[in-house]
Structures are given as C-alpha cells and as structure tokens.
Amino acid sequence: MRIGEIAALVGVTSRTVRHYHHIGLLPEPQRRANGYRVYTIRDAILLARIRRLTELGLALDEVRDVLADDAGRELAEVLGELDADLARQEHAIQKRRKALAALLAGPLTPDAPISPALAELLKSAPVTSSPTAAKDREHLILLDGVVGGDAVYAALRPLADDPAVVPMYERLDELEGAAADDPRIATLADDLVAAVPDEVLAAIPDSGPTATGFEEALLADYSPAQAEVVRRVMERVTARLRRRSS
User: Fold this and answer.
1) Considering the entire predicted model, what is its pTM?
2) For the chain, which residues make up each domain, given as ranges?
3) Which residues form the HTH merR-type domain (predicted)?
4) pLDDT tens digits, residue range 227-245?
5) Dist CA 121 CA 159 (whole Å)
6) Which fold has domain 1-52?
7) For the stretch 134-146, what's the b/e string if a residue is b when 16 or more beta carbons lie within 10 angstroms of its beta carbon?
8) From CA 231, how far away is CA 134, in angstroms rounded?
9) Distance (Å, whole) CA 222 – CA 172
C-alpha cells in the first residue's frame, strides 16, 4: 500500500502518518527504488491501534508508553487516569466512558483497545498456537478499527465452538513454504468457504475496506500457497455476497 492508501484504510490523513513517522511513533516502512514508501498489513495494524488509542483521549507520549509495554501495565495506568478525567465530563463524553469501562473490565491485552463485541468473540476463540490463527486475530482487530462489525462478530461466535476450526488453521499452517499450485489448496479453500455461515454473509456491511492496496497487502501477509487459499476464499465469499444481494 502507498501512504494515501494506508491512511484512507485506517481513517487518518497522509499528513498524520508522516507526523507519526517524524516523531518515531510509527516506524518508516521500506521504500521502493522510486522512493515511494510501501506499507504492509503489519503497518496498518499498528497505525489502526495508534488511532484507537488517540480516540480514547491519550496523548501521543502516552500512546508511545502503551505501545512500548506489551504486558499492558502502562495501558491500565493511563486508562485509569483518563477515566478519572472523563468522570468530570460525564455528560459530554458518556459514550467514550462506556467504551473505556469495557476496556478496564479487562483483562487488558496488547490488542487493546478493541470493541466489546470483538473482545467477546476473541475471548471465546479456541486456544491454539497456530500462526495463521494469530494472523486472523490481528486482521479482525485491524478491521474492527476500520469498519467495525458487531453483527459480524456475533454471527462468527458459533465458529468459536466448532471443533473443525483449529484443524483448518493447522492445515493452512502446513502450507507455509509450499508452492502456489500445491494440490492441497483447492480442497482447503472449499472447506473454508463451506465453513462461513450464511449469518455472517447477512451481517457483512455493504461497504468495507476500499483502499486500492488493501487486498494486495493482506495477501502479502501470507506465504504463496496460503495467499492462494485466502484469495480463493475471498473471491468465492464475494460471489456469494453478490448472489445474495441480487
């Protein structure tokens, strides 16, 4: 993604992104030979988290402290101070205090802050060491900051109890390092598409991330064979959405 694309995806300005680079809050990405910055999905995840923290009222120095402390202790301290200030302005910022209360209910994690609906979904997710499951979690957190989706999270909730979910993540893990024409790709894509409930399709909003480079950056987060599985799943889910709306 280019700077304008990542800025549009996360909901900030290109000037803001450059400012975060200038003060060292957001690391500078690699540049192509022509000098243009190239942003990855990892950059978007970090930028979205910075945006969510600043929306809660944290100063940039406080955001820096939170990002530097993965254990969440600094975040808890900063949010506690912010809560005391919000209490003095209860009428004007009641909605923000409600979101803050949900965060302070904890447990605080390096993912925070996220919406209560997504927090509930992630809390019920099966415990697994799967690397692709961890990526899926990060992508949900990114989209939560970009478009939200409480109805989608509610529709995904039954999958958390589906014993077939973790094995499919593990099958995707096994494709790490495989070629993009690996024969396992087609079967896994079929199984993943079949696992998407109709309720999830019904809950997906008409508008979503529209940045030109978003899909490319998402697929670049996977190995070639894994990316091919994800690409096929995205294409077929999009086709199902079109049939549903026609």
Assistant:
1) 0.68
2) 1-52, 57-111, 114-246
3) 1-69
4) 999 999 989 988 887 877 6
5) 10
6) Multidrug-efflux Transporter Regulator; Chain: A; Domain 2 (1.10.1660)
7) ebbbbbbbbbbbb
8) 18
9) 10
